[in-house]
């Protein structure tokens, strides 16, 4: 991975450990030339940069989808609430300006397109096959399943599905992404690699 881009990625606001970020990058570099990478759950763009680096290497494109109002765990009173991301004008979380700064700093706007909207709404009208889908959106059971339902069907045959924050043991973290993993394994995906909480699967049906 480009050293300058990796430095920006590691310094960006977010929850992707460097080891998992590099594993995501490695998986994404395997997409076909000109392939499309889709990320569900952008936050401030940390993981987006690992995907952007891979897209640039493969001659591909990244589309990243988020409503930018934060997941449940990002709201006031929850563990991952960050007051610096709150818009003082509205009092609501707004990560979109921070994504813009991240993309500008990394100079990856030529390979990244940001879509502002709820993933299940965007996924409803989406029609382009996806070479790699990265799921890292809401971590409630309802939202995680909705993200997979909306986007899993768009993964091209032989394409990749990456799921973040997969914790089989409830003592380690929430179970929603793990349940998505189990569902994907039942619906034509086969596990390809594990790095920390990141799982990479390939569609084989």
TrEMBL record:
* GO terms assigned for molecular function: methyltransferase activity
Gene3D superfamilies per the UniProt record, alphabetical: Vaccinia Virus protein VP39
List where this protein forms a coiled coil.
none
Q: Which InterPro entries match?
A: SAM-dependent_MTases_sf (IPR029063)
One Gene Ontology cellular component: plasma membrane
Single GO biological process annotation from the record = DIM/DIP cell wall layer assembly
Name the UniProt key words of this record, in alphabetical order: Methyltransferase, Transferase
Pfam families, per this entry? Methyltransf_24 (PF13578)
Listed PANTHER family: RHAMNOSYL O-METHYLTRANSFERASE
Give the protein name, as stated in the record.
Secreted protein
Q: What is the lineage of its organism?
A: Bacteria, Bacillati, Actinomycetota, Actinomycetes, Frankiales
